[in-house]
Amino acid sequence: MQFIYAAILGYLCGSVPFGLLLTRAAGLGDIRAIGSGNIGATNVLRTGNRWIAAATLILDAGKAALPILIARYYWGEEAARIAAIGAFLGHCFPVWLGFKGGKGVSVMIGSLLALSWPVGLIFCAVWLIIAFSQKMSSLAALTAAATAPIFAFALADEWLAGTVALLAVVLFYQHRENIVRLMNRTEPKIGSEKKPQ
């Protein structure tokens, strides 16, 4: 039962749509009608409000870290990994929004920092290096996610690596349209997209 509790806790925390709530509270409208239509921090940035985007990133990371830390405290490390999966699925497929959520980058950051902070920091470093060098948020996220299981295996164990690999697969699925654009060389670069009027 403890694993079921961890999964439910993770999903409920992960499914809180902070991007949608914050943009509405700030009078920026429905984030689902802007840009890519997802509720994550990258799309919130397209509103032109960097503070709301930063708050979304922090809260989305936090809503993943919180259930992981709670699950670890009460039920152990395996429950913590299950909570991470639950939070990730809750963010990407929230039942309250018709299972249409974010792409999972912020939640993956929060999950990795809570599960193994060195792996989380490496994920952030890889993201920043690719983002600054290639000016593509999606490519940065995909590269960081693809390499994260390797670092998880090297710095922790095969159980964490397996968990991170599962998160990476879901993240890749959520970025499937970006992958097509990257292959066609039509993916917009950071800062090139027009902000809403």
TrEMBL record:
GO MF terms held by the record: acyl-phosphate glycerol-3-phosphate acyltransferase activity
Keyword set, alphabetical order: Acyltransferase, Cell membrane, Lipid biosynthesis, Lipid metabolism, Membrane, Phospholipid biosynthesis, Phospholipid metabolism, Transferase, Transmembrane, Transmembrane helix
Subcellular location as annotated: Cell membrane
Chief location category: membrane
Enzyme Commission number(s) from the entry: 2.3.1.275
NCBIfam families reported for this sequence: glycerol-3-phosphate 1-O-acyltransferase PlsY
Any one GO BP annotation for this protein: phospholipid biosynthetic process
Subunit structure comment from the entry: Probably interacts with PlsX.
Gene Ontology annotations for the cellular component aspect, listed alphabetically: plasma membrane
Enzyme class label: transferase
Family stated for the protein in its record: Belongs to the PlsY family.
Keyword Lipid biosynthesis: yes
Task of the protein: Catalyzes the transfer of an acyl group from acyl-phosphate (acyl-PO(4)) to glycerol-3-phosphate (G3P) to form lysophosphatidic acid (LPA). This enzyme utilizes acyl-phosphate as fatty acyl donor, but not acyl-CoA or acyl-ACP.
Protein's name in the database: Glycerol-3-phosphate acyltransferase
Transmembrane annotation, as ranges: 51-75, 82-99, 105-129, 159-175
Record membrane topology: Multi-pass membrane protein
Keyword Metal-binding among UniProt keywords: no
Annotated InterPro entries: G3P_acylTferase_PlsY (IPR003811)
Provenance organism: Devosia limi DSM 17137
Signal peptide: none
Pathway in which this enzyme or protein is active: Lipid metabolism; phospholipid metabolism
Stored SMART domains: G3P_acyltransf
Reaction(s) this enzyme catalyzes, per UniProt: an acyl phosphate + sn-glycerol 3-phosphate = a 1-acyl-sn-glycero-3-phosphate + phosphate
